[in-house]
Amino acid sequence: MTALGIRYSRDLPAFGTPIGSLAALADHEVGYGTRLGRVAGLAAAFRAEFGSSGKPDQVSTHDLITLPYPTRFALWRAATTFAPFVSITNRMLIIRWTEQDGRRRVLLFEPSDVERGVATPYFAQLAARTPGPLRNLLVTVHGDVLEHLAAVGLDPAEVDYLVFDHLHTQDVRRWLGTTAPQPDLGASEPLVAAFPNARLIVQRSELEAMADLHPLQKPWYQAETYRDLPPESLWAIDGDTLVAPGVALLSTPGHVTGNQTLVLNTDSGIWASSENAIAVECLWPEHSKIPGLAKSARRWQREVILNANTLETTAAQYNSMVLEKHLVDRSQTDSRFGQFFPSSELTRNRLNPGTGPTVKHGVLTHGQAGLVDSGGSSDMVG
Predict the structure, then answer these.
(1) CA distance 358 to 261
(2) Is 296 within 8 Å of 305 (Cβ atoms)?
(3) Percentage of residues in the chain having pLDDT higher than 90
(4) How confident is the model at residue 5 (pLDDT cuts 50, 70, 90)?
(5) How far is Cα 238 from Cα 23, in angstroms, rounded to an integer?
(6) Cα(250)–Cα(259) distance, rounded to whole angstroms?
(7) pLDDT tens string 100-157
(8) Please, which residues bridge with residue 61 across strands?
(9) What is the mean pLDDT of residues 275-294?
(10) Which pLDDT tens digit goes with each residue over 197-224?
(11) Is residue 272 within 8 Å of 263, Cβ to Cβ?
(12) Domains of the chain (ranges, CATH numbers)
């Protein structure tokens, strides 16, 4: 049990297969610059190994919510727009595969309980300062997790794993259930899990960090909501893990200590997804039409633009983003950019001039197209 009271069992079956090809990136005996120099070679080795692991059966994309996010965080020190906010769209991925013994598995990536995200300290304060009519213009709920599952014919009991790139804003009590009443949710009895057979897969380092948050971290977490989760519902992993054929979780620290990137091998090539960046062009800023991005990257000789709301370890996040851009294949629609899929993607909004994305993926699909109940949201033009 941690100081905060977050409990997780250390006596659980092994999850996935450890990946060793990127281990040198975590070598703390050398500096960040040395580790950055290793990225390209190690990423090439991983790509060859990962590509031969196979592919999942199906991947589909489902929009959850579009909301405002400060420009100074989203496009750190680069954008010259006077718009104080950008709009970002958070999406869930449904990933299915078949084990060697024939068992079907389902993983949900970024299954945010959007109704509870507003309780995050930062967003709660932002909402309190924003008039109701303006909030209605800035926030659009596209659908919740359970609605999307129903639309594709998935029973929540079929879901095996829940994964987030990190746990900023996340309250998973309704998904995993609790061991005690939750008065703030109006529950005088322990909550029954919406996903009775699912486990939340988290990097152990993030769980440990949540036990005693730093002031820079506190505005973005709802750590107290993890206190009464069933211990067996949290599965802690350490570092890079092959989850299934063509499905991996890679340790990409920096944005938060335990940040992780989903990597997928699909019919269109290798994709990576995280919130290290909020736009594809943040990994290829030299091609960006957002005012300031390309110029800033040239001036400071930086090849990526960070999503920098916490800045836990800036150099580590930079290296993680360079790794992501070396892992992925080039986009089949615009070869200037790669197949990086921001878990919260920059979305055009006429209320935020000068922040429209140069390119937007919107959807990531693989396998049976019929699983997609809603594609990526259109840019918000008002």
Answers:
(1) 23
(2) yes
(3) 82
(4) low
(5) 11
(6) 9
(7) 899 999 999 999 999 998 889 888 887 777 776 666 777 899 999 999 999 999 999 9
(8) 93
(9) 97
(10) 999 999 999 999 998 999 989 999 999 9
(11) yes
(12) 17-367 (3.60.15.10)
Q: How many CA atoms lie within 13 A of 51 on its CB side?
A: 13
Q: Considering the entire predicted model, what is its pTM?
A: 0.94
Taking the C-alpha atoms of residue 92 and residue 2, their distance in angstroms, rounded to an integer, is 30
Write the CB contacts of 105 (distance below 8 Å, at least 6 apart in sequence): 96, 97, 98, 99, 160, 161, 244
Q: Residues 6 or more apart from 285 whose CB is under 8 A from it?
A: 78, 293, 294, 296, 297, 302, 303, 304, 305
Q: Which two tokens stand for residue 350?
A: 């006429």
Question: What pLDDT band is residue 370 in, cutting at 50, 70 and 90?
Answer: very low
- Alpha carbons 90 and 108: distance in angstroms, whole number: 13
pLDDT band, very low/low/confident/very high, at 378 (cuts 50, 70, 90): very low
Shortest CA distance to 252 belongs to which of 344, 341, 162, 319? 319
Average pLDDT on 247-252 reads 98
Residue 232 has pLDDT above 90, yes or no: yes
Q: How many CB atoms lie within 10 A of CB 310?
A: 22
379 or 166, which is more confident? 166
SS (H, E, C) the chain: CCCCCCCCCCCCCCCCEECCCCHHHHCCCCCHHHHHHHHHHHHHHHHHHHHCCCCCCEEEEEEEEEEEEEHHHHCCCCCCCCCCEEEEEEEEEEEEEECCCCCEEEEEECCCCHHHHCCCHHHHHHHHHCCHHHHHHHCEECCCHHHHHHHCCCCHHHCCEEECCCCCCCCCHHHHCCCCEEHHHCEEEECCCCCCCCEEEEEHHHHHHHCCCCCCCHHHCCHHHHCCCCHHHEEEECCCEEEECCEEEEECCCCCCCCEEEEEEECCEEEEECCCCCCHHHCCHHHCCCCCHHHHHHHHCCCCCCCCCCCCCHHHHHHHHHHHHHHCCECCCCCCCECECCCEEEECECCCCCCCCCCCCCCCCECCHHHCCCCCCCCECC
